[in-house]
Write a structure and sequence with these properties.
Elements (H helix, E strand, L loop, with lengths): L9 E8 L5 H10 L6 E6 L7 H4 L7 E4 L9 H16 L11 E5 L7 H9 L1 H6 E11 L3 H7 L1 H9 L2 E5 L6 H14 L4 E4 L40 E8 L5 H15 L3 E8 L6 E8 L2 E9 L8 E8 L3 H9 L5
Parallel strand pairs: 1-4, 1-5, 2-3, 2-4, 5-6, 6-7
Antiparallel strand pairs: 8-12, 9-10, 9-12, 10-11
Helix pairs in contact: 6-7
Length: about 325
Amino acid sequence: MPNLQADTRIPVSVLTGFLGAGKTTLLNHVLTADHGEKIAVIVNEFGEVGIDNQLVVGADEEVFEMNNGCICCTVRGDLIRILGQLMEAKLGKGSRRKADFDRVLIETTGLADPAPVAQTFFVDPEIAAFYKLDAIVTVVDAKHAGQHLDDGHEAQEQVAFADVLLLNKTDLASGDELQKLELRLRAMNPAAKLYHTQQSRIDINQILGIGAFDLEKKLEIEPGFLEDDDHEHDDEVTSVFLRETRPLDLNKVERFINEWLMDHGVDTFRYKGVLNIKGMKKRVVFQGIHMLFSSYPDRDWKQDDVPTSEFVVVGRNLDEDWFREQFAGCVAS
């Protein structure tokens, strides 16, 4: 795992969200903002002929558009290929025109499951060495999200994988609708940062360069939302939040996660946390997507910290009692 303190890899942000939520509007907002960075953009469209490149403002960014399917399925190989081409261009290799860029933005189709996009940065060694996944940003349509979440697995999965949730078009929903939707989103994914937006406008420092996927900053989890049942929906996607102040045994943690994933890997979308491991002065970051997970030392606990393990699992069919029992069983002897 690269040294996070001297990580020079190119950060990648994934913009996702259901059809019409405001992803392209957000992308345009980022590209026209006064940030002084050069951004390479990968736009994914579903279908033979793409139009998103006509909707995305020109600036100096190159748009790499992938057709004939979603990033998440048939063109996943294209994503690796295009990231590889960008890497070669950045390094000035081969016959490709040299490209100068500071970060990459990937806008997925509204029908995409973000998981395989994220997995790309785990499973391909060259890609993992050159790029780092900074955050998955999911745009949620405040007016129509309830229907999307009720009707489609894709919308639930986009919420489940998010590091940042933008509750967009808030001017089109009532205060009561917004409150119910926010409670629902937080119950599904309590670890994600949540912001209210109109026309996808937000301070880009809240979505770019935040290190949310690598957990460079301690997770800011609000466990109270896990206990709030004041919503009307029985979503398939739920979350379990775990906390333990006693030092843990990392081998026991990995064993219990492996045991769960053997039967439930497909339904386990995201899991991540900061762990207090016996005998280690540094915090240990633990994170995973479906069957893939990793753990690595982060930074020393601060003097005024009370070393505490905090862990969240987001997925379907989660057995909360089992997780609590197993996590308690990871306490070091």
